[in-house]
Amino acid sequence: AEKLITSALSRLAAVSNEIRVRVESSTLTIGGHKDVPADWYFPDTDSPAGLIYLQHGFLANASFYSATAAYLAEKTDSIVVVPSLPWIRSPPAVNSTVQRNQGYST
Hints:
It is a single chain. The protein contains 3 helices and 4 strands, in the order H-E-E-E-H-E-H. The chain has 106 residues and is an alpha+beta fold. Strands 1-2-4-3 form a 4-stranded mixed beta sheet, with helices on one face. 14% of the residues are buried.
């Protein structure tokens, strides 16, 4: 299993070194009222084909998907936005507390 993982990581590193996209960080407004940090991946084109919203899951953040986002931006000629939603990374009990403290209703 270790050899398989090492091989996959080597291939991923090789692919990521070949991808050419511009990456910027800013915020994204979620639900019309909450600004969250987001990474934006721009393809090397003046006319992007579309917009891809790539959302992380529980206990992850936007940086976990940087190679995937860059790959998608380049291969689809689309802008890829990957927000980090801190309330998704917290266990349920902490999640409720964070949401109450940040003005969310549970």
